[in-house]
Design goal:
This protein has about 200 residues and is an alpha/beta fold. It has a single domain, classed as 3-Layer(aba) Sandwich (Dihydrofolate Reductase, subunit A), CATH 3.40.430. The protein has four helices and ten strands.
């Protein structure tokens, strides 16, 4: 089954943009370039929410089409996306990704903000969390994580320091033994009765 990774560069206090949307605090280096080039070779699919898509378009991005990626944008408000190779998904994100994981292909990257990442963590379809932790405290902004409605245990797979005092960390999501509803979502998530994974 394909691996779904959620991650981003983030401040030490867990934000992916400053309050005003600024990204001038991000440290770019040869290390980051090498890590990203290696990672991009392992994936063929990008998932993003509407806000991340709109930022990407404003910055001149093509949704990964130039890199041979297939991109899915999740939104209940967008009516259409005209970009070739980009598909709009308005249904249940967890169900869609669960079905996508069963199809042939390489890894799947969840890119951008915490709302989509949170919904996919809640649905239990994220396999790994990858962070590039920057040595800065922003004090506020767009959070990397939102409340997924339950405790999610992680296992550290790799961590190392790279240029600029940044720390790369990759975690495996420990899968819960929680019973699932017919839709595939954790049956007790809404009630808060989900036990910690072991």
């Amino acid at each position: 089954m394909r691996t779904v990774t959620y991650g981003a560069a983030c401040s030490l206090d867990g934000f992916i943009t400053a309050r005003d949307g600024a990204l001038d605090w991000l440290h770019f280096s040869r290390d980051v370039h090498d890590v990203m080039a290696k990672y991009w070779a392992t994936i063929d699919t990008i998932l993003m929410g509407r806000k991340t898509w709109e930022v990407a378009v404003a910055m001149g991005g093509d949704g990964g089409r130039s890199a041979g990626m297939r991109t899915y944008v999740f939104s209940r408000t967008l009516e259409r996306i005209a970009q070739p190779g980009v598909e709009l998904v308005s249904g249940d994100a967890g169900e869609f990704v669960r079905a996508l994981k069963r199809k042939p292909g390489k890894g799947i990257c969840v890119m951008g903000g915490g709302e989509l990442g949170c919904s996919l963590l809640e649905a239990g379809v994220v396999d790994e969390v990858g962070l590039n932790i920057q040595p800065v405290l922003l004090g506020g902004g767009v959070p990397l994580f939102r409340d997924a409605g339950r405790r999610i245990r992680l296992e550290l797979l790799e961590n190392r320091t790279i240029a600029g005092g940044c720390v790369l960390a990759t975690y495996r999501v420990k899968k819960s033994r929680v019973a699932r509803s017919p839709s595939g979502r954790p049956a007790a998530a809404a009630s808060g009765l989900v036990a910690d994974p072991t």
